[in-house]
Structure formats: structure tokens, C-alpha cells
Amino acid sequence: MLLTHPKPLLTLALSVFGTLASAASAAEPPNIVLLLVEDLSPRIGAFGDPVANTPNLDELAAEGLRLTNVFTAAPVCAPSRAALFTGLYPQTFGAQHMRARQSAVPPAGVIPFPEILREHGYYTIMQGKNDFQFDAPSTMWDVNSPDASLKNLPADQPFFAVLQNGATHESGLWRDWGVQLKRFAKTATNCVSCALAMLKPARWNDAEVPPYLPDTPKVRAEMNRLYANVHVMDAWVGQQIAQLDRAGLLDDTVVIWTTDHGDGLPRAKRSLYDSGIKVPMIIRYPDGSREGQIDERLVSFVDLPAMILTLAGIDPPAYLTHVPRTSDGLPEREAIFAVSDRMDNARDRGRAVRDTQYKYIRNYEPDAPLLAEIPYRERLDSMSEMRRLQSEGTLSPTLEAYLAPERAPEELYDTQADPHEMINLAADPTQADILQALRDTLDAWLAETGDLSDIPEDEMSAVLWEGEAQPRTAPPRFTAIETDAGLALAITSDSEGASIEFRQADDPDARWRLYTGPLALPVAGPLEARASRYGFKPSDHATSTPEDLQVR
User: Fold this and answer.
1) Per-residue 3-state assignment (H helix, E strand, C coil) for 200-224
2) Tens of pLDDT along 27-74?
């Protein structure tokens, strides 16, 4: 069942261009920058990797807080980002499949946290991938562009920016020189230090091949490429920090660095093992607090919206407070949960729960192989090597099981004794109590949150859209009203949960502003407005008329 949450009542704005009351508090809210990279497990020097060459991230970690038990809600980018930006588990609102065949629809009243920041006076910037499983409405961001930057920031607003880098993406491991030349050209345009890092002849030949991959020269070469890409990504991080410093912003900015899920390797990306969902995270606070510290508490990506809003001095909405939090916004949880579903062309519905020691995975489709043939993944040398060794009859029994047409319906791992999750304890009678306890925990979580994968994917649209066609948000309407503060102009949409933006209609260069409540009359000239309900098509634009400004 989809949860519904009432949208908070909008507060009265002092004027069309007035400052939100919440932004006028005595304490200046910090700027917040989220540095989000792709397809990477904790292969960072500061996280104990002896091979990684990551001087910039190591310095960032020395100045900030390292979170060592952070988990994504899904092991692939789009569902993971859906959870990150909404604070909801992806299977609760149609965001669980990679990629969604129809737009996911958060419940009415659920607003991705960048819009909440914007509502409270933040200037919001999105650079890079918009992979939320729904089209990002304009109300989420003041600026949303692949080339967005921190230039031309408003002087009177704090800002929140998502800056992204794809150096460590799975495609960067392909031995395809055409692809790599395009990557180099794009990188050189945006980050000279990154391009120089790409040309660096350093080698990481000491890199360990994880036990879930075959140890062959081609796989070792692929691991070498992975660490080379990590070094390039680290150069990008250094560039972002340097730019903040040169602009005089670093001492007023919270910097958060993390990755969207685990390594872009077979049995990592797209899998519910820690290799697919455990990610590193660093938070650098501008006041120097928690400098050089390590925090081992369990954190899920669904916790990050509440954490970021708390950093901004904003009370998170009720739907983000299901897990107790400390004063810094980080959770106090006993377990994390993660989901996998269709991955491109492959069936792979699974659910997982993990505490500080044990991981339980329930495979709903045990007749589907773990490493099904997904064209994107088949371009990896590690994948082709597994196929080659299988055909030769020399693949180890453990790795052979990953290619088998069936797998165990349940898996249980002791992640402390077996960090690579190679020994399934589900059939071990000495672990029966732990197995049952985690089964019960997973069942209780599914009962609480709901799971749209209980219905066929081709029927989800009827639930999400209440029909087969994606609805369009109802257009805005202008209504003059009387309030205790005087005459005001309300802008509404008949679509429940719709967000609204407005601007001066007679100025095509005017900035769109998020509507947060009735606007004091009179206003200068006609207003243009547009409405967006997350998961719906945006509305047509509407323009106010002189009659709209008269109280009826």
C-alpha cells in the first residue's frame, strides 16, 4: 500500500520577492555541497585501502568525519538515487526497477529534499545525472544543467549543490578505446587535473582481486583500470574543494562526498551483497567539528534527506522521521534494508536486511541466475573471463554458482567473519535463530513500507497513475483572498501535492520562484505560474489577469 502524507500548510509571504521567514533566523544556515560519484565501494586510502591513490579524499577525511557503515537502498543508480532524494525506499513508489518503464510517483505530500531546502530559502543547483525514476520538476532546482557550477550564486541566499562525476562509472572499465577517448575529451573540457590524472602512467598492480571474480591477467588489468579511475575521480574532488576555497566559500560550506552504490563489477553493482550496497561517505563540517573522526553507526541512503535538512536547520517532515536521529541528523538504527528488482533485461527481485554483523537476503526469483546476461555488464573483461572459464570447465565451483540457472532462495552471511559474503549460512542449524530473527525483521519492514513488486510491473501504472496514461498536473489558478495581514494572491492547483513556481509574466528573463504561500497584494504586473506533481507531467503555464486580483 502506498503511504500518503498531507502537504504542510503554506505560510504567508511578506511580498512577492520577500525572504522566507525561516531563512531570517539569527544563525546563518550553511551552504551544503554533495559530491556524488558513481559505482564505487570504499576503495579510498582513508578507508583503509592500501592500494588507492586518493590524496584529496584522504585530506578531506582528515578534516571531516568518515562514516564507515553507509548503505544504499538499491545496488544500481536510478533506484538508489530515487531513495537518496526522496527518503523513501524505491519499491514503495514504483522506483525499484532499473530503469522504470513508467514514472515513479511519490505519495502526495512527499517532496524531495532539495525542494524543501528551496522552500526554506536555499538556492539549489543540480549538475549531472537526473536519475530519480521520475522527471525532476523545475521546482526541485533553481539551476539544473549538466554544465551547472557554483558561479553566479545569489549573494543573499545559502546554496545547496549536487556536483557529480562519472570517472568511476562501470563503463570506465570497458576495454573500448572509442569510449575511452570520448571520456578523455569530455574530462579534459571540464577538469584539466583529471585529464592529467588519466594520462598518468601509474600502475596499481598490487590490487587484490576479490574472491567473487576469477584471478586472471585480464581481470587484474581491469582492477588496475578501476584504481586508475579512482585516482581521476580524486583529482576531480580536489578541483571542487579548491574552487570552493578560492571563492571564499569553503569555511561556510558543509561538504558531503559519497558514491551512488558499490563497484561497477560483477557481483557488486546490481547485487545485494555489501560489494553492491556498502559505500564510503565523508562529511566535512565548516566549523571543524568531528575532524578526523570515524562513525561506525548504520546509515541508509533513506536517512540522508533528514540529515541534510537538519544540517540546514530545518525540521524534517514527519515521513522522514521514522528512525530516531541524533542532534546531527544521523540515524540511530539497528538495521538497514535494501532491494533489487528488474535490472535492465534481467529479473532479479530480492530483499535484504543487515545489522552490524549479519546479512539476510531473500531471493524471490531463485530460478533467475545471479549474473544473468545483461549486455552492459557483458562488456566487462571480468564477465567475459567468467564465461570463458565456464566454457572451459575451469571456473571454480563458487563462481560457477553465480552463473547457474538457479540460486538459493535465502542467504545468510556473517559479515564480520566473512566480509565478502562467500559462505551462505542459511542452511546451518547453528544459525537458525539468527536466520529467523532476520526473516521476521524483513517481514515487519515490508509490512510497514509496502512493496509494489507484489504486482506485475506492467500493472504498476494503473496503481501509480490511476490509469494507463501518465496524468498531467492541473494548471495553476490565481485567487485573491483576504487574510489577517491584508489582501493576498493565492496560487493553487487541483492536483493534490502539486508544487508551484511563479515569475513576472512581462519579463521573459525573470527568475522562477517557488511558491510557498499567498503573495501580498498589490503585485507588479501579471504573474506567470506553472505546477508540477512529482511523477506527473508538468502543467500548462497560466498567467494572472486583472480579474484574478479582485476579491470575489
Assistant:
1) CCCCCCCCCCCCCCCCCHHHHHHHH
2) 789 999 999 999 999 999 999 999 999 999 999 999 999 999 999 999
Looking up cell 492536483, which residue turns up?
495
DSSP alpha helix (H) spans, 43-110: 55-62, 77-86
Distance CA 342, CA 349 (A): 6
The x, y and z cell numbers of residue 203, run together, are 600502475
Sign of CA dihedral 40, 421, 70, 53: negative
d(CA 25, CA 42): 38
DSSP class of residue 454? Answer: G
The Cα 52–Cα 280 span in angstroms is 13
CA distance 81 to 121: 24
What nine digits make up the cell of 488? 493576498
Give the architecture-level CATH label for domain 350-463. 2-Layer Sandwich (3.30)
End-to-end CA separation in angstroms for the chain: 41
> What single-letter amino acid sits at 209?
V
Cell of 14: 511578506
pLDDT at 432 over 90: yes
Residue 489 pLDDT more than 50?
yes
Instruction: Indicate where the chain has its CATH 3.30.1120 domain(s).
Output: 350-463
Spatial contact of 382 and 174, defined as CB atoms under 8 Å apart:
no
For the record, the C-alpha cell of 126 comes out as 543540480
Active site residues: 77
**Which of the 8 DSSP states describes residue 75?**
S
Res 202: pLDDT: 61
| CB distance 363 to 350 below 8 Å | yes
Distances (CA, A) of 15 to 154, 356, 464, 521, 545: 18, 51, 37, 8, 19
In this structure, are residues 133 and 122 in contact, taking their beta carbons and an 8 Å threshold?
no
Most confidently modeled of 4-8, 27-31, 450-454? Answer: 450-454
pLDDT confidence bin for 4, thresholds 50/70/90: very low
Q: Is domain 477-549 given the CATH code 1.10.8 in the classification?
A: no
Task: State the residue for C-alpha cell 522521521.
Answer: 321
Chain region(s) in the chain for CATH 2.60.40: 477-549
Is the torsion defined by CA of 352, 353, 359, 360 positive or negative?
negative
Q: What is the pLDDT of residue 457?
A: 93
The per-residue pLDDT for range 348-375, each reduced to its tens digit, is 999 999 999 999 999 999 999 999 999 9
Please return the burial class of 206, using the count of CB atoms within 10 Å of its CB with bins 0-12, 13-18 and 19+: exposed
What are the φ and ψ backbone dihedral angles of 392, each rounded to 5 degrees?
-85, -10
